[in-house]
Amino acid sequence: MTQASEPAAPLVTAEWVSNTLDAFQDDDPAYRLVEVNSPESPDSDFPSRYDDGHIPGAIGFQWDEDLSEATERDILSKEAFADLVGGAGITEDSTVVFYGDGWIANWFALFAYWEFTYYGHEDARVLDGGKEYWVENDYPLTTDAPGFTAREYTPRGPFEHIRAYRDDIEHAIENGLPMVDVRSPEEFSGELIAPEALDETAQRGGHIPGATNVPVATVLNDDGTFKGEDELRARYAEAGVTGGESTITYCRVGERAAIEWFVLSELLGFEDVRNYDGSWTEWGNLIGAPIETGE
């Protein structure tokens, strides 16, 4: 089994993944690759769905079916998470690299990264640019699904310091702490409640009082890779987010917010960043919860 030298950061390149394909396809659980699909695939000229073609050795997870508990509208329980991950041939010591499809690169893959981090997985990575970058640059695909040996997996978490709840939002409002609404300007203003083609999941449009709008597309390059550190720091500084205070990210159901949680926490190294995965689906439906509309 061979692989490229280890990257120093949680963001890995397509070249590194390409050079590590032998390890990702081996039954040895040291390296695992996970494609995370969204509930609805965008119109695209490339095979966005796992069954249509995926990186050799990749395991396929469906965000809404595998990583969420639909009845309670929550992430997986600790026990269900252990069953899913262990059943996929992943151990606590595996280097796990996530990538995915979506209207935005790695839209749901970053939510998977956040959920793995919440349950204490220590070596999680993300493929910069996601699946579209991989395909557009002519890296290989396969329709063969791996059949890895199931493993025992014992989560160390949950680690609640990266997750925000309603009480945390109320505290942030009362104390003027930064909140980053990563949705589109139209969602932030209240013109739209959800992205076009997705079901609306809240009764009201608008944003949480005191939140600033940093649309997730503005932290990415045109090819879906993340912008450089200096540009990212400048973008957030414009929104009053410098890492000096506890910061909360949110969107519609917590998946786009996980992208900017990743930027702030993992790429920029801000110490106290939480993803409010209840997001606008919860806040926009709460009776008596304050909202603001407009820019």
Short description:
With 295 residues, the protein is of the alpha/beta class. Helix content is 29%, strand content 14%. The protein starts with 10 loop residues before the first strand and ends in a 12-residue tail after the last helix.
Give an overview of the whole structure.
- By secondary structure, this protein is of the alpha/beta class.
- The protein has helices spanning 14-19, 21-25, 63-66, 78-87, 109-118, 130-136, 166-175, 185-189, 229-238, 255-267, 279-283, and strands at residues 11-12, 31-37, 58-62, 68-69, 74-75, 95-100, 124-127, 179-181, 212-213, 247-250, 273-275.
- It contains eleven helices and eleven strands.
- Strands 1-7-6-2-3 form a five-stranded parallel β-sheet, with helices on both faces. It has a four-stranded parallel β-sheet with strand order 9-8-10-11, covered by helices on one side. A two-stranded antiparallel sheet has the order 4-5.
- The chain is globular, with a radius of gyration of 18 Å.
Lateral arrangement of strands in the main beta sheet:
1-7-6-2-3
- The CATH topology of the largest domain is what? Oxidized Rhodanese, domain 1
- Supply Rg: 18 Å
Shape estimate: globular
Number of domains: 2
Care to count the β-strands? Answer: 11
> What percentage of amino acids are in beta strands?
5-15%
CATH H-level name of the largest domain... which superfamily? Rhodanese-like domain
Spans of at least 5 consecutive residues with low confidence:
none
Report how far apart the termini are: 53 Å
Under the CATH scheme, the architecture of the largest domain is: 3-Layer(aba) Sandwich
The largest sheet is: 5 strands, parallel
Structural class by helix and strand composition: alpha/beta
- Give the averaged pLDDT, no decimals: 92
Helix content: 25-40%
